[in-house]
User: What shape does this take?
Amino acid sequence: MALKHKSIPDVATVKEELLKKYPTKVARKRAKQIVINDVKDGDVVPEVQANVRTTPGIITMRGCTYAGCKGVILGPTRDIVNITHGPIGCGFYSWLTRRNQTKAPLESSENFMPYAFSTDMQDEDIIFGGEKKLIAAIQEAYDTFHPKAIAIFATCPVGLIGDDIHAVARKMKEKLGINIFAFSCEGYKGVSQSAGHHIANNQIFTHVVGEDDTPRLGEYKINMLGEYNIGGDAFELERVLEKCGITLVSTFSGNSTYEHFATAHQADLNAVMCHRSINYVAEMMETKYGIPWIKVNFIGAESSAKSLRKIAQYFGDKKLIDRVEEVIAEEMPAVHAALEDVKPFTEGKTAMLFVGGSRAHHYQDLFTEMGMKTIAAGYEFAHRDDYEGRKVMPTIKVDADSRNIEEIEVTPDSTRFVPRKSDEDLKRLAEEGFTFKDYEGMMPQMESNTLVIDDLNQYEADKLIELLKPDVFCAGIKEKFSVQKMGVPMKQLHSYDYGGPYAGFRGAVNFYVEIKRLVTSKVWNDLKAPWEENPELSATYVWE
Amino acid sequence: MLLRHTPAEIRERSALNINPAKTCQPIGAMYAGLGIKGCLPHSHGSQGCCAYHRSTLTRHYKEPVSAATSSFTEGASVFGGQANLLQAIENIFSVYEPEIITVHTTCLSETIGDDLNQIVDKAVKEGKVPAGKQVIFASTPSYVGSHVTGFSNMVKGMVKCLAVASGKKNGKVNIIPGWVEPADMEEIKRIAGMIGVSFTMFPDTSGVLNGPLTGEYHMFPDAGTPAEDIRAAGDAIGTLALGEWCSADAARTLDAQCKVPCRVLDLPIGLKATDRFIDALRTVAGTSVPDTVNFERGQLIDVISDYHQYFFGKKVALVGDPDQLIALTEFLLTLDMQPVHVVTGTPGKKFEARIRELCAGKGFDVNVRAAGDMFLLHQWIKNQPVDLIMGNTYCKYIARDEDIPYVRFGFPIMDRVGHQYFPVTGYKGGIRLMEKILGVLLDRADRDAPEEKFELVY
Assistant: This one.
């Protein structure tokens, strides 16, 4: 590889180098977001500034609130007609580009995911208001498709011109007799996609969760929250959970349907994968319906096993506990065989992960399993609790950008609030060391003297690669090709480079094989032509 | 079925766009900006716009696409984006050090009424633009026109902000290539070079969005049109604008601004349009067309005649952008194919008129729609089946559901390689288009032929 055989500077020097070129104000801000990890007793880690505005002009990896709301949370649900209210772009760019797979069981089942619906606002709509067009669009969608639900998503100009999309939703809901609800997810709200997740959580909780009391039967009923079925991850989890005998009431929102959301209040446990994007729904379901939540992680074979055991421990039923052990015992041999094959190629290599609000943490487990070290990591849109653990939540200052995002008041449901565990059960679980609503964050798991960088930008990414020469760099599509131009293999952890699944046991095997492919690919050795390797003409050509 | 909810019955819609055949202005402006040497495009709006445009261009090119954003928050949306843009300009020149920034607006900054002229002027006065560097701009509201309009507006912005008439002609011809691929820009330059025309082409993304992998990353590759060449476009003897929709506005602005006369031609896709382009080139250059060009033209004619039987009478559905579709329709008619359904998402009745005019008297009725969408195209196909679909990557959902041969053409192509490297313009581009069309049509014949009718030779 082109960048090999250079000395590696220490992390303090790297931090200094990253900040050197910035104007003073920018440097001061970034210094708080670029942190040298230092894990002390009790998992105490340094404070990292997160969930703050990106400085204008800095080439950020972040997107917007609309992307977080329509693209991430609601995108993977197949039977809701999602109408983007705005000029055409937002609807176009979020059309099938997130790789949320879905499997409609029958040819007659509804699946609107291959469609993009937009009000395609024109200048007259901006000037005179777009409500009329939105009403007409909902009517046309209803007339053509007769869906069971329609969702409306606001784009930037909608909030500015003052279209009341919620009033339109109420009016059309009454007129058409189907559920219609709206999201005020204008792109300028908040500082990143994160605000959009929150807005999506609020509205899906308010308008859909608990709408259907038709009993969902089964043993050990759980919801999987924050799993979006990129590359079929949710399919793998469905397979594993079914094998264990655990009933999956709903997934928020990979491979999901309206009915799954509407009946989600009947689950007895919420298992949270991506804490950042979905913890609001978990909290609200606990308050309203009494469903406790736990943090799980199904990225990494060991982590998957640990998460299954945690779910079994929660239910505390010997039948389930034994079955989970059987399943883990059945799944692990293939994992170990794959590791044996890849480890000679991956052991001792280094990775950098800059993605999302949970993946930069979760995927470290897979790299650890392969014997690789994560030397730098960070999130695009996470908050301090995702870095330092939920224990810091009381100390997080709420700034103006976060205050603009509605916190909804939730109270226990008068008839449907049911505590899932008795006080004795809770005491027993506590004695066993079982923790609820606990997320320890990314940093305690990372080694000291590694770099933790929030909202990494293009300049810093280039510098990091130049200085630390990782063997693999993980981020998204916008970062992919500049990294590879430098001769460093890049793995997309949003789209998985069109591979996957990487969750669960089979997913772990897929990921090991993929990383082996990346670090052993011969292309990285062919960057220089023979005449570039030896530019001096040292001999005459020898003919046969 | 992927598009299982698309009914054959067509209901006119006035409000709901389903499966768009266009996207918004700013992405076109970003693409155009990348065709200036040392340029960092800048999106004056919220972060999502820039992220979406960069992602889409990256998926299409598999190349780094750098661009910055004003990162609007709620406050900026209320109080105006001036402070954000001033700060952005300062940071961009300090951190990324481009030669030039092309700023385009978004629906957000347009709705609140930010005045780029005034803000950029302020940036210059406050010394935020280093000596010898430039900030140019274009207004690209997403709620007017389409991505095509945005490209056109940014090219016009280049002329407005840069081109100057010194009073002395430089003997060069400006070529505005329109929204074509880097490979096409390269091909257009090659053709102009063969004719012997002294020219400036702008914008020029060749070498920017199809660069090599060398182990080194340069945010600003050694490619693109230098800003000083666009400045000197005001001294040219004339401008050839390729494509009424993407290039004409800039050419006419240059005429008004610097008295550089222009001629608007179709994109040189296919035999006839390439003929007209070359005829125009040799006329302005005052040269005769060299035999090498006649040789390439002859090769194209040769392939048409060799394979005419497989083109003849085949029905085609087309979706894409106006300039491309006009030239492609003409080429398919040259091949005696029948482009029976033609849809663009870009509004403009003159598009429909031009397609009708091209298809008039050719023995079939054409369905044509501007400001249409791919849902409508799919419904047309259900009602009147075709032998071939040509359009961007989203067409593959229709092609699979209806089991119709399909050639990727236009923007974006996110699932195949080739458009970055091989042109569809010029005579050689015509041969490539035929190769692609014949490939899918004959593969289909091979797949479907009964064993006794299976052919070895075509």
About this structure: Chain B touches chain A through 83 residues (CB under 8 Å). Chain B has a mean pLDDT of 98. The radius of gyration of chain B is 23 Å.
